[in-house]
Specification:
By secondary structure, the chain is α/β, with parallel strands linked by helices. It is built from nine helices and twelve strands.
Length: about 280
């Protein structure tokens, strides 16, 4: 006799946004998951409406709530792709309830990052600047390449996103830059170059260039260039839809509920963590 698989109940923050809506659509068509709650900022015009009608999946019987406290009861995991301030607010609440959390919010830095790391000690949490499986393979490949090509190769990162994206460079580009810096012994505070204009002189060997493009409806593109004398290697990932991020978030949600408290990322979820260089 087969044991019946446990249904995973998901609550979604920022449910009326582009990413929140895509996650809800993915929950509906993915086996083993069910939407248990959804919320938005208190002044959102869709508060009180059926989430299914907002996201295009049909009537769901779940109303869009104005606060996390109204939406996460009965949830196993909260998925949060919002803003640094909103994510921290939600995380403080989840730290008291004991539920798990999957965070795709980017731009969490400085004191906010320190608070997040502290809160994660009492939460089962996955956080990643990019939930795409392909991008996380890119992280792995770029780390391996930078260890091999650390001498004699200039390293540059190019990223492109839609015109509505608020942060630059993207969290994914910054994570790639951190991988390059960590594997080559560089310091991003000194060696990262975000803009070149005018008479800037020759490129320093240690520079890690990070350039951002914002245009149209580009979902997300990231290229890492390793340029030597007489040759170059380029590694590119292009996202054609937000489905990749939504699928990754659900994969992380299913994984994290069985983990101990602490901060994990998609390298852990996918089993890509390289422990030989830790």
């Amino acid at each position: 006799m087969h044991e019946e698989k446990k249904m995973i109940h998901i609550a979604v923050a920022g449910a009326a946004g582009r990413m929140g809506g895509r996650i809800i659509q993915m929950i509906q068509k993915s086996e083993g998951f069910t939407l248990s709650g959804a919320f938005e900022r208190p002044d959102h015009p869709f508060i009180g409406r059926d989430v299914g009608s907002i996201t295009g999946i049909g009537e769901s019987g779940i109303q869009l709530k104005k606060d996390i406290s109204e939406a996460v009861e009965g949830a196993d995991v909260l998925i949060d792709f919002t803003t640094p301030e909103c994510t921290l607010h939600d995380m403080r609440f989840i730290a008291k309830t004991g539920q798990a959390m999957v965070i795709g919010t980017t731009g969490i830095t400085g004191q906010n990052r320190e608070e997040l790391q502290g809160l994660a000690k009492s939460i089962r949490c996955v956080i990643s600047p990019n939930m795409s499986i392909g991008v996380n393979v890119l992280f792995k490949v770029v780390g391996d390449l930078s260890r091999i090509l650390r001498e004699g190769y200039d390293m540059e990162i190019l990223e492109a996103h839609h015109r509505l994206k608020k942060d630059a460079p993207s969290g994914t580009a910054l994570h790639l830059a951190n991988i390059l810096a960590t594997t080559t012994g560089r310091n991003l505070d000194v060696d990262a170059v975000y803009e070149r204009k005018g008479f800037i002189g020759e490129r320093r060997d240690a520079e890690i260039g990070i350039q951002a493009i914002r245009a149209g409806d580009i979902v997300g593109e990231h290229t890492v260039i390793f340029a030597g004398v007489g040759e170059r290697i380029e590694v590119t990932h292009r996202a054609h839809s937000r489905d990749n991020f939504a699928k990754g978030a659900l994969l992380a949600a299913a994984w994290v509920i069985t983990q101990p408290n602490g901060l994990h990322d998609m390298q852990d979820v996918l089993g890509l963590r390289d422990t030989s260089n830790v």
